[in-house]
Design brief:
The complex is a heterodimer of chains A (about 675) and B (about 120). Chain A contains 17 helices and 17 strands. Chain A has about 675 residues and is α+β, with helices and mostly antiparallel strands. Chain B has one domain: Response regulator (Rossmann fold, 3-Layer(aba) Sandwich). Classes of the chains: A alpha+beta (about 675), B alpha/beta (about 120).
């Protein structure tokens, strides 16, 4: 743990990833390497110097011995030899010295610590340096000397030297390291850290951070640049924040505007919905009270008021009569009903009526002249009255009431005017509708009377006519005896005119019944072929009388149809009768065919033909091609009109045209199968 | 002895025309002026044919026709309705009441006589 701690401490001191850390490590590493190399070399040189020195010392000792010892040896003066050996041992390295003569040891000395070594073992060259030499006296061998020097001492010395070197080296390394660290810290790390702190501070948004630029080193320059950058950042930031606040303000404004617009829109939507609802009520019911209640209800809600009243203006009395209430207590409603509200009164409605413009009372408490104290007593403070106008004519008023004082906004006034216009229109429409209803029921009654009168008259006319025609026929048939020839002609004229009158009456009766909607078709299966043939037979005589040729073209495969046979017969008779009547020579033809599930019947003649004007009016009542010809040609002038109505009741159409070769063509088409009578 | 014809008609002129027409052709004519009398006379006299007006005081011609046709001994007597109700649907009503023929007023005496003869031949 302690080791780890130490590593940690070192790591803290020399932050390996920081610039200064790396620098320190590199620097110290290089210095250490150089020092160690130097120390190694120094030790190696020292070592070889010592070894050489040792050899020289041994050489010198031996040389000294070969000089000093021959004489004593020759003189057998052993003491001097001993002394000499003793003297050799002054050298600390000297561990063994022996002087022998043959086998005899003259002097021998071994350093105490090496006493256990034999000389032979001293031969170990790694530990000892040994030499042996004969000692000669004037050319005579007088002895032998052996010397051994221990390398130990030298080694110790060398180790001491090495240790010294190492110590020195370490000292230097430490010194350099500390110096380097201190310098690095002071001139690089600290300013960089400061700068880093400043940068961090700026990074967190504090653009006012102080940057130390006092140094003139590169870091100082860097700091200056950095400060410049900070300043420009600051000004940029200021600008940005100004813009930002501007944008924020703009966006706030925008939001407010959007809110306001949204609110306005919502209000408009409410108003439109209310108006839509009112329109719906107006169009869905004619109940005036219901419509006015709906209008008042929406007016009160949208004007943010608590209650209101719709008044009708009694023009004759010049007073306003409350008609509809909303949001008012029954007590106040009763009081209002009992009050006489004249135009020109100091009430809101009285003033609005007089001015024909909206009038508001913003605070009843300060309005001393206001004549209806119960309104204030009921808690209402402000009133808004709008007159109901119809083309400059006052027809009523709309009043809303609020329980707090203050002016009504223009918007509310405008809104209320819209509702007032709607109310006015409703009241006016209701009045108009009432008038129309009265008129229409009067008309309906008159029409009914007319139809009844016509029906009755026709019936009553026919009864005496029956007698006239009956008697005439009886007389002509000479039931009452022979009649003179002179009387016969007038009697025939009498009968003819009588029959014409009868036809007229019949047609009028038919027409009035049709118009009164009281003619019911009796629809049944029939054969149009047979019907046409029957009608042809009945007009044969008439055609023969006038010398007109009668022809019929009927499709072979005419189907059985469904219609009121009698009425269709009436139409055919009318068309054929007319054709014969208005044709003086030539022929009358009838063509019957089927097209698209309808019968098509055409009656063609070679008579007078029709003008463009004729075609337009010919199917109208009492119209013939030429007014004067009515009497000449006979007929009532109602026949075509009745024929048209009968065809239309069958869901068909009838039309007339001129033929290019002269004469007229009358055509009608009816569905083959008429299932239902068509009401006109 | 000619055939007996009952004329039920409230209008004097019409009665007279019918009487003159029929008697001149050799028929015997009995007249009733309303529906009730018509039914009574029909029961009493058992005529060979009845001419019936519709618009009558008291019970109308339809009702009188129904009552006569409802009696077993009278049911076979032909009844010709002679009426001024001459619109479509009126004839159906008459036939529904049980009449045998329908003639609209104003009638041609000649044609009516032909119909009467047709029934009694």
């Amino acid at each position: 743990m302690r080791i780890l701690d130490t590593t940690g401490a070192v790591k803290q001191l020399i932050k390996p990833h920081s610039v200064s850390g790396r620098f320190s490590i590199a620097f110290i590493g290089v210095v250490t390497l150089i020092l160690f190399v130097y120390a190694g070399i120094a030790i190696w040189i020292d070592n070889s110097r010592i070894n050489k020195d040792l050899e020289q010392r041994l050489e010198r000792a031996l040389h000294l011995s070969t000089i000093s010892l021959p004489t004593p040896l020759w003189n057998l003066d052993n003491h001097i030899v001993d002394d000499f050996i003793e003297a050799l041992f002054l050298d600390e390295s000297m561990v063994f010295a022996e002087v022998t003569w043959g086998e005899k040891v003259i002097s021998k000395r071994v350093r105490e610590e090496y006493s256990q070594f034999e000389f032979s073992s001293l031969n170990n060259p790694s530990l000892f340096l040994s030499t042996i030499s004969d000692i000669l006296y004037e050319g005579n061998k007088v002895g032998k000397i052996r010397l051994s020097i221990s390398r130990e001492t030298v080694k110790r010395e060398m180790i001491k030297g090495i240790l010294q070197t190492i110590c020195l080296t370490i000292f230097i390394i430490v010194a350099i390291t500390i110096t380097s660290l201190v310098i690095t810290k002071k001139y690089i790390t600290a300013p960089l850290l400061k700068l880093q702190d400043s940068a961090s501070s700026i990074a967190t948004g504090n653009l006012d951070t102080f940057i130390d630029k006092s140094s003139h080193s590169e870091i100082g320059i860097l700091a200056q640049q950095f400060d410049k950058m900070r300043e420009s950042l600051q000004s940029l930031f200021l600008e940005v924040s100004e813009k930002k606040s501007k944008i924020e303000e703009y966006s706030r404004n925008l939001e407010q505007k959007v809110d306001q617009r949204t609110h306005e829109l919502a209000q408009s939507v409410d108003e439109l919905q209310a108006l839509g609802e009112v329109s719906r009520v107006v169009s869905s019911t004619l109940d005036l009270n219901k419509v006015l209640t709906s209008i008042l209800h929406h007016a009160v809600q949208l004007s943010d008021t608590k209650g209101g009243t719709v008044f009708e203006f009694e023009e004759s009395e010049q007073v306003f009569v409350p008609r509809i209430y909303y949001g008012l207590s029954s007590a106040i409603a009763k009081k209002l009903e009992r009050s006489v509200l004249r135009i020109g009164d100091k009430t809101a409605i009285g003033q609005a009526g007089q001015q024909k413009a909206p009038v508001q009372i913003s605070d009843l408490e300060i309005e001393s002249e206001y004549p209806l104290p119960y309104v204030l007593e009921d808690g209402f403070r402000a009133l808004l009255a709008v007159p109901l106008m119809r083309q400059d004519r006052l027809i009523g008023g709309l009043v809303v009431m609020r329980k707090y004082a203050g002016n009504f906004s223009d918007r509310t006034v405008g809104l209320l005017q819209t509702f007032a216009a709607q109310s006015a229109l409703t009241i006016y429409n209701a009045q108009l509708f009432k008038q129309i209803e009265e008129k229409s029921s009067q008309l309906e009654l008159a029409d009914k009377h007319k139809s009844e009168f016509l029906a009755n008259m026709s019936h009553e006319l026919r009864t005496p006519l029956n007698a006239i025609l009956g008697y005439t026929e009886l007389i002509l048939d000479e039931i009452y005896g022979d009649i003179p020839e002179k009387i016969k002609k007038p009697l025939e004229r009498l009968e003819k005119n009588g029959r014409h009158l009868l036809n007229l009456i019949n047609d009028v009766l038919d027409l009035s019944k049709i118009e009164a909607g009281r003619l019911t078709l009796s629809l049944d299966d029939y054969s149009l072929r047979e019907l046409v043939n029957t009608v042809l037979i009945s007009v044969e005589g008439l055609a023969e009388e006038k010398g007109i040729k009668l022809s019929a073209t009927i499709d072979m495969d005419l189907p059985i149809g469904k219609a009121d046979q009698q009425r269709i017969g009436q139409v055919l008779l009318n068309l054929l009768g007319n054709a014969i009547k208005f044709t003086d020579e030539g022929e009358v033809g009838i063509e019957v065919s089927t097209t698209n599930s309808a019968f098509l019947v055409s009656v063609l003649d070679t008579g007078l033909g029709l003008s463009v004007e004729d075609k337009q009016i010919i199917f109208k009542e009492f119209h013939q091609v030429d007014g004067s010809s009515t009497r000449e040609r006979g007929g009532t002038g109602l026949g075509l009109s009745i024929a048209k109505k009968i065809v239309e009741m069958h869901g068909g159409t009838i039309w007339a045209d001129s033929r290019s070769e002269g004469g007229a063509i009358f055509s009608f088409s009816i569905p083959i199968c008429v299932e239902q009578q068509v009401e006109s | 002895m000619g055939k007996l014809i009952l004329v039920v008609e409230d209008q004097e002129d019409n009665r007279r025309i019918l009487r003159d027409l029929l008697t001149s052709s050799g028929f015997e004519v009995v007249e009733a002026v309303n529906g009730i009398e018509g039914v009574r006379l029909a029961e009493k006299l058992i005529p060979d044919l009845i001419l019936m007006d519709i618009q009558l005081p008291g019970i109308d011609g339809y009702e009188a026709t129904r009552q006569i046709k409802a009696k077993a001994n009278l049911a076979s007597i032909p009844i010709i309705v002679v009426t001024s109700y001459a619109l479509s649907g009126d004839d159906k009503k008459a036939y529904d009441a049980g009449c045998d023929e329908y003639v609209a007023k104003p009638f041609s005496p000649r044609k009516l006589l032909a119909k009467v003869r047709n029934f009694l031949s």
